[in-house]
Amino acid sequence: MASSYDPAQEGAQMTFDGRMSYGDYLQLSRILSAQQPRSTAHDEMLFIIQHQTAELWMKLIVHEINAARNALQIQDLQLAFKVLTRVARIFEQINNSWDVLRTMTPSEYSQFRTALGQSSGFQSYQYRMIEYMLGNRNQAMLRPHAHQPDILQALEAELANPSLYDIALRLVHEGGITIPDDILQRDLSLPHQADARVRAAWAVIYRDPNRYWNLYQMAEKLVDFEDYFRRWRFNHVTTVERVIGFKRGTGGTGGVSYLKRMLDVELFPDIWHVRTEL
User: Fold this and answer.
1) CATH 3.30.470.20, domain 41-245+253-277, yes or no
2) pTM for this structure?
3) Burial of 179 by CB count in 10 Å (0-12 exposed, 13-18 middle, 19+ buried)?
4) Which of 80, 141, 185, 253 has the fewest beta carbons under 10 Å from its own?
5) What are phi and psi for residue 247, nearest 5 degrees?
6) What would the pLDDT profile of 82-118 be if each residue is shown by its tens digit?
7) Number of C-beta neighbours around residue 107 at 10 A
């Protein structure tokens, strides 16, 4: 019978005196003790795990974007493309998790919402880091992290680095398609604004993909990446509206109105806008 099967008979390690186990390697005792509901509401556990899981995925996203950026800087495009594909799939994974949270009704959320105090998802420093790394560099969003000097320093340090899109534009320039100096030498701490001259450079690539195949692939990887990112934002808006309607967010934002404004943010605007001209 299956119930009498002993894995040790096939060599499975069954004792761990002084040896590292699965739980040791993953530090599960720390991870699984990090859920500390502040109410007696059943659904608060779902809410906590949903957001903690998202933060773990975002930690991996930051790790992978750094790898993609480093690969582009040394022109290892195949590695960069692989990593960007992985990040797009991570966003797909996070997107799917909204389906779980949407099983929570407004009545169930209201049972513990006050326990959240002023905490809100827009205060996520990892989400802010991701946006800064991609090029959406809104310096006003540094303020929610002023009480944590180490996090503030990390975000400020990121503003001094070229974003993923800045590096992509440099590769376009090095590939023989002129990007104006004022774009290449702009203040990196500010967000890139859509520019007709940059759009024209992407148009050259899209009109002759065989000649500029690597740059063409890079553009499509960036579009694919942002496509999944936009879906994440849209699912966030839909979930919030479904659960709290148009109430203000716990952190003081307009809630749905704030999130809908974020839907208009374009990370790689020139690549999106060039499609109209092709």
Assistant:
1) no
2) 0.91
3) buried
4) 185
5) -65, 160
6) 999 999 999 999 989 999 999 999 999 899 999 988 8
7) 9
